[in-house]
Amino acid sequence: MTVESSSEAAVSSRIAGILLAPLRWAMGLIDLPMSWVQRRLGTGGVVAAMLAPNMLIFGVFVLFPMFLNVLYSFTGGGALFLESRVFVGTEQYETLLDCRTYLDPASCREDRFWRAAGNTAFFVIVQVVLLVLVSLITALVLNREMRARGFWRAVFFFPVLLSPVVVALIWKWILQRNGLLNAALAQVGVEPVLWLVDRNWAMFWAIFLSIWAHLGFYTLILLAGLQAIPADLYEAAEMDGTPRSRVLARITLPLLWPSLVVVILLALIRAVQVFDEVFVLTGGGPGSATLFLVQYIYETGLAQQVRNLGLASAASILMALVLVVLTLIQLSATAWRERREKR
Amino acid sequence: MSHLELKNVSKSFGRVDVLHDIDLEVMDREFVVFVGPSGCGKSTLLRIIAGLEKVTSGEVVLDGKVVNNVAAADRGLAMVFQSYALYPHMSVRQNLSFGLENTSTPRAEIDARVGEIARMLRIEELLHRTPRQLSGGQRQRVAIGRAMVRRPGIFLLDEPLSNLDAELRVTMRAELAALHKRLEATMIYVTHDQTEAMTLADRIVVLRDGRVEQIGTPLDLYNRPANRFVAGFIGAPHMNFLEGRFVVGEGNSAEVELDGGHRLTLPISVRPAGEPVMVGIRPHHIGLDAVGAGIPAAVTLVEALGPETIVHAEAAGHRIIAALAGQRRIAVGETISLFFDPQHLHAFDSEGRRLPEGA
Amino acid sequence: MSIGSFLTRRRGGASWHFTDVLAWIWLVSGLILMFGPVIWLGLSSFKTRAALSEFPPTLLPYETRMVEVEGHDEPLPLYRVTTEDGEERLMVQVRRIGTMAQMADPEHPEETVRVPLQAREPVRELQLATENYTEPFERLNFLRFFYNSVFVTVVATIITLIVNSMAAFALSKYEFKGRAAVLAVILATLMVPLSVIIIPLFSVINGLNLFNSLWGVVLPTVATPTGVFLLRQYMLTIPDELLEAARMDNASEWKIYWRIVLPLAMPAIAVLAIFSVMWRWNDFLWPLIVLSDRELYTIQVGLNSFQGELNVQWQYVLAMTVVSMLPVVVIFAFLQRFITTGIASTGIK
């Protein structure tokens, strides 16, 4: 350590000390009651006091609502608070599930729910497949020996940090009638397209947008998985003269498989909850072409003139069931990966 | 004045019993070493004294007061940890003064005490550094210094030298011994290294499987080990053991016939003939029998150390190690005749207990 | 097969392999597709309302040059006019009538000529419409949105760090009855996202009188199970001997928390702080539900309300989108490596 850097460190630590002085003072102040608790109730009392704030907030704003959600789904009426709501048994679920034929949303009593569910299912399947594929290819490309890998990784990663509203606005601006895309098409003689007014194009862009925004995240996880594969395996394969396609099929993909499973499941869980970007981009339209489950719950329960909290709760319980199943699979997959990595 | 007493101390972690009925008294200014193989419970015992672990049953008495329910901080002890446990984000000075700050000692006194300790341990120029920037030996000194500033009644040291290289360990051992004299402090020291125990201790406590095997001065343990385990654990190289049976001998002394047929006279009272016995002899108490009347042994390995020669040999089905003074011309494969100094023979019964010496 | 072989190539050989070409195509099109839209946003945000409605759009924010002319209060636009005899002249447009324009020489504004529209072209120059940035702050309450977002982000992050680190400390460094149960509950709720409990949470917020208040946005988000987990995992790696040493040094348990464990857990705290800032700054659905008063909108909700208006003022929306990106861009620019390794090692976003 040189003299300069150590004096520099001393200066920066002094600055940090000054900045942290109020914090220090506050923490020292808390020490008084905490020491008192420790003397009176022992270490256990302190532990309880440290756990309490988090668990209190957690209980009020996460656990209690989860429990409440179930109760709401068995009640009806327009009242906001549970005590003035009417118990209706499974009526809300019956309403949601009441269809003459499940293949046609129009035949259902709550057709918007079924359209949202159908759209979500379609979105989930197409988006996850494409997202994982694109992320995988990007990760494989970034894993090659290359200059400025950090730069290229940043190129694909940075949209992850953007807010969904920003992402949607960036693309909405490009996709509008006299936007950049239509201008580019006009150069090659194609008529302008109303991208977000056409049902199919709207869904296409909803999927495109969510891939654009999230692919960097999954690329990063896959890249970490790829870089954990020992280089000597590739060297051994090269010594054996193994064709590259075989290296991919027999070394890279099998060893990457655990990371890939985690990525697929995380992408599934996120895709089921799709809302923000698409809501800002299309508002669920045209019609209900890009209406997804979360938006259905939000609108049914909170954003319409007549709030139907019971129906929205029932819908969110059904969605939660899907998520719980996916998450359980994910957790066991993570545990499986960790076990495998230990070996 | 620091006086520590352990009465019937037992400790279990769940179903595993780690300590059984430990009784011990540590006097003021005494240097006591707990020694034993890893897993014998010596560190747990030290942590119980420190107050970091609670006893399952029994009492810890400090200066006449039962301190079972007194928190570690309030026992007035200080501990040096095996990993040193220096606070990595604090400078050496902050490490040394942290404990005093916690007891609201006036700033001037903290500075005075830290300065004094730093001088004593020759770490004055390191005070502004962080532990990361220190060598192993320097960290060791800081860790001891952190214990010293608090002027504790008893120093507890948990394998403090085990992270140092061999050479530094010898130096620090000497420094510790000097420090103990100078501070006139009570110290309890845990180690698995019998050399450290022998060189440092006023008294050694040998532990095995959570039980006290023997308590005594280093030479006590060396000269009169209470059982086969202590005999084997204390002293390097290890004591040799040979199986045999008592036979009818002449006069007052007990005679043993070893498995190979060779007879030895032991300095103990007569035992019934036919009783099995384990005879122990330390490598340094074996010599060469000039006339060849000793126990014949085939040499398997010779280690010439300079001042002495360590000979590994096989005699009557036993592997024997002899430490011969000076430099010897002995070749592997050669047969030599070993002489066991009869004054230094140890005898243990089939349970491993030391047989009482003759009158 | 061919794709497979290009994807597995790791070591650059001496020869220019076709997989190198494919990889470069992928990277370059990635660069255009990922960066292009953001750069386009940035360029567009400096265009005037008139320039924004042009089709086809120009790449850079060009503006017709305006000239001060004697006898006119307002500056007049400058055009390059091709006269009937094929000569090119610089003239200002005084007035436009149907398909004809009344043009004049800037030096002699009193002599006007009638010129068909197609015979003239505006003289353009690069001009940044910085008023796109200043006006929303002056007229559209954007400063208020900005302040609200900063408040939510800062307060939520501070509370998150304190509350989560205390819980993580208790859960990582002490044995107590019910610890496994607490951990199990936290783990279980990792799988229940906010979007599933918005309905009951809305009534809880109303019951606590937090509807239409920034605290209603902050509180439900601060007890993140993710944060507790991240910090606990890290604190488990801090050796217990340090805590014991502090205990021997007469430190209270609280002091051990903030003098020993908290400073040593700084790397994990920093990761959580960065994540928390990003989460709270970008939050959309929950603020949208809780905040009904325009005065209380966060940037994200405010932006959404701008773009949802009947007559969207794109020049402001684009500029404010850029402004709302700035904090995130700054964080990313300085802490890129930190964030990416944080995500890669925790799998948390």
Overall number of domains of chain A:
2
Instruction: Using the alpha-carbon principal axes, give the shape of chain C.
Output: elongated
Considering DSSP H and I runs of 4 or more, what fraction of the residues of chain A is helical? over 70%
Shape of chain A: globular
Proportion of beta-strand residues of chain A: under 5%
The low-confidence parts of chain C are 6-13
Q: Would you tell me the structural class of the helices and strands of chain A?
A: mainly alpha
Describe the structure in your own words.
- The complex is a heterotrimer of chains A (343), B (359) and C (349).
- By secondary structure, chain A is mainly alpha-helical.
- The N terminus of chain A is likely disordered.
- Chain A starts with a helix and ends with a helix.
- By secondary structure, chain B is an alpha+beta fold.
- Chain B has 2 domains: 223 residues, P-loop containing nucleotide triphosphate hydrolases (Rossmann fold, 3-Layer(aba) Sandwich), CATH 3.40.50.300; 109 residues, OB fold (Dihydrolipoamide Acetyltransferase, E2P), CATH 2.40.50.140.
- Chain B is built from 8 helices and 20 strands.
- In chain B, strands 6-7-8-3-9-10 form a 6-stranded mixed β-sheet, with helices on both faces. A 5-stranded antiparallel β-sheet of chain B has the order 13-12-11-14-20.
- In chain B, strand 12 and strand 13 form a beta hairpin.
- In chain B, helix 2 packs across helix 3.
- The mean pLDDT of chain B is 88.
- Chain C folds into 3 domains: 43 residues, no CATH class; 64 residues, SH3 type barrels, CATH 2.30.30; 214 residues, MetI-like fold (Orthogonal Bundle).
- The two termini of chain C are 34 Å apart.
- The radius of gyration of chain C is 30 Å and the shape is elongated.
- Chains in contact: A-C, B-C.
- At the A-C interface, helix 1, helix 2, helix 4, helix 5 and helix 6 of A face helix 1, helix 2, helix 5, helix 6 and helix 7 of C.
